[in-house]
Amino acid sequence: MFNPIKKHLFIMLAFSLWANNSHSVINVFACEPEWASLVQILGGDKVSVFSATTALQDPHHIQARPSLIAKTRRADLLICTGAELEAGWLPLLLRKSGNGKILTGQPGHFMSADHVTLLEKPKLLDRSLGDVHADGNPHIHLDPHRIMIIAGALTKTLSLIDPDNQNDYQNNWISFKNTWSRAITNWEQQSQSLRGKKIVVNHNSWVYLEDWLKLERVATLEPKPGIAPSSAHLTQVLAELKQNQADMILYATYQNDKAVRWLADKTHIPVVALPFSVSSDETLFQWYERILSQLLDIKQ
Amino acid sequence: MRKKFLAAATIAAISNINPVWAISDIEALRIQVEALKKDYEQRINALENRLKQSEEKAQIAQQKVEQVAEKVEKTKNTSRTGQGNFNPEISLILDGRYADFNNDSDAYKLPGFALGNEAGLGEEGFSIGHTELTISANADDKFYGKATLAIHDHEGETKTDLEEAYIQTLGLGHGLTLKAGRFYSAIGYLNEQHEHLWDFADAPLIYRGLFGDQLRDDGLQVTYVAPTDTFMQVGTELFRGDRFPGGGSHDGVGAWTVFANIGGDIGIEHSWQLGLNHWRENDVDDRTSGGHSHEGAAAETSSFSGDSKISSLDLVYKWAPNGNPTSRNFKLQFEYFDLREDGSITMLNSGPPEEFSTYDGQKDGWYAQAIYQFKPHWRTGIRYDRLSSNNKGSDEDVLAEAGLDDKGHTPERYSAMLEWLPSEYSRIRLQYNRDDSYENADNQIFLQYTLSLGSHGAHQF
């Protein structure tokens, strides 16, 4: 089955494919699309970005597919959320890829959650409380202020990895900083009417959005993080909502909408299906705009 | 081009003819330009003012943003990896079952395949399976280490078995990874996976027949991942070779393997992996088998000496809508193994003289399984197993006694299972087998629980 000639042919094939590979740009492996978009803005044409997931996938549950190992193998920079969000797949990719540049402690290992404070840090680590993250809630990309800090840190990382192009990264960062702060001011003005609105959520994915826009979460459909809504829990939520009416129900488009639809039918509370991350044909800016306009549409 | 030239010539001609007109024209133009200049200066001033204002506004906005930013920025960076917070990561697998068989489990055999290791059906009634304690961590920035202790009952005795204990390099670079210690061989798709990760309560028949469920040994593994968009991995393992299906005692490298895997995605929803593997031991010495025949201490056991080689192919395909396997997903898995052996069989404790036969063994088999998660927390699956053997020797009777005669029977098995997974950390499984391993077909039912406590490691593809 394995005669020596075939073996040699295989090795030659592997090396010829390797030789074709060019190293002129920084290869970036982004765990989620929001970081892919951010690093694209800051890196411009000096980076080639791959996103391991799409907005329609659950970043908690991704399989360490062969294609992802191949991408990790070639990465010069890894940018992920951290805070255990990718604990189910990233460690395996790192171990299997044999790539030293993106290991913990290396400049090419960038965990966004390392640079900002996290909300909802649990006091007690007990699995009967659901899928809790010891470091706090990892869904930080829904706060533009945190994005800004992460962008600053990411610029430093890019300059460290690729010092030849540090002027480009610095210029991109300054222009991003200006545009993004103006955008934040605009968004905060536009969303005045959303302050204090009562929301029901499917999973506690919106903590940072709530914190930013001052939304008030009155109920969560999952009884515990990561545990699917049970009928008993839903009945309880329904009873609570009769006492304390909510303004809207939020869920991410990658999540199962069965419980959400059921509750909407019973209560006639409007449902907002928000994209949980940047889609392939838009930028970080456009995605924020889209989320805000969806929320504001409900209010009118 | 030609038109422009003509126009220019005409203008030149006209201005030559009427010089007086031209002078008053210039005066008018001068006044106009003067007026325009004034107007533009005003406009530019206005623009400059506006720009200044908006710059100030932007500065205020940025200051505001920076104020908020200070609040959310971490004062001290704690380095956090994607891995668990526990160091080392400790996990405990609890596994227990209730099994019901029509036939006597001690009568189990696979005609043509002399069973080794602990291969068999396991206990009927209530029993606990392997309780696995795993401890793993990155030792430093160069090495990762992992050890798995399996505690299980065997004939009324509680035994502790060191399933795996290995170290592995981290970020050696150039796609290279070294592993050393005791570990499951990378040959085959299922072989590297611990029992609790299997989709059925028992191993495929071909794994049972060739490896006594799984192939592991003490040694060294080198793998190389090519820097290509399509996943391409090649690797080799050097083993001591004392463990089944090897045998004897080796001072150097007793057995070795080579393997290659390629894989990738087709669009967003489909992914696949194909593997080719080869295992070889040229100096198998006194490999006894007979599995759990329980015929008393002086039972005749067969002993094989010679050379042995296994080649295999594995194929895995997975699907998930939008590439999001959380609610629904599908997996198709196929593996084929072929074993060739050349040597001799001796029946120990027979004679004198000891019964002996030359041996030219050929065994192969495959299984295919399909698993479908049809809604969150629920999975179902089917599996089909089939084996065949063609073993020859100088003394057919000796081969028959050693269990190497297939007696004209083709072992096969049909399985179906249904799983309920209340969370990522627990699973209840109901499985049914129609088992035609040997002449008397058996109906087997398993009701099994598997729990995972502590840190929950990442799963392989």
Name the CATH superfamily assignment of chain B: Porin
CATH topology-level name of the largest domain in chain A: Rossmann fold
What name goes with the CATH superfamily of the largest domain in chain A? Nitrogenase molybdenum iron protein domain
Largest interface: A-B, 78 and 79 residues
Biggest beta sheet attributes of chain B = 16 strands, antiparallel, barrel
Q: Describe the sheet with the most strands of chain A.
A: 4 strands, parallel
Shape of chain A: globular
Order of helices and strands of chain A: HEHEHEHEHHEHEHEHEH
CATH architecture of the largest domain in chain A: 3-Layer(aba) Sandwich
Helix content of chain A: 40-55%
Work out the strand percent of chain B. Answer: over 45%
Order of helices and strands of chain B: HHEEEEEEHEEEEEEEEHEEE
User: What would you call the shape of chain B?
Assistant: elongated
Give the C-alpha Rg of chain A.
Answer: 22 Å
Q: If you average the pLDDT of chain A, what whole number results?
A: 88
Mean pLDDT of chain B: 87
- This entry's quaternary arrangement is heterodimer
Distinct helical segment count of chain A: 10
CATH class of chain B: Mainly Beta
Q: Secondary structure elements and their pairing?
A:
The complex is a heterodimer of chains A (300) and B (461).
Chain A: H1 4-19, E1 26-30, H2 33-43, E2 47-51, H3 66-74, E3 77-80, H4 90-97, E4 109-111, H5 144-161, H6 166-190, E5 198-201, H7 207-213, E6 216-220, H8 231-243, E7 248-252, H9 258-267, E8 271-274, H10 284-299
Parallel strand pairs in A: 1-2, 1-3, 3-4, 5-6, 5-7, 7-8
Chain B: H1 2-17, H2 19-72, E1 89-101, E2 125-128, E3 131-138, E4 143-154, E5 157-169, E6 176-184, H3 205-211, E7 216-225, E8 231-239, E9 255-266, E10 270-289, E11 301-319, E12 329-348, E13 356-375, E14 378-389, H4 396-401, E15 412-423, E16 426-436, E17 442-454
Antiparallel strand pairs in B: 1-2, 1-3, 1-17, 3-4, 4-5, 5-6, 6-7, 7-8, 8-9, 9-10, 10-11, 11-12, 12-13, 13-14, 14-15, 15-16, 16-17
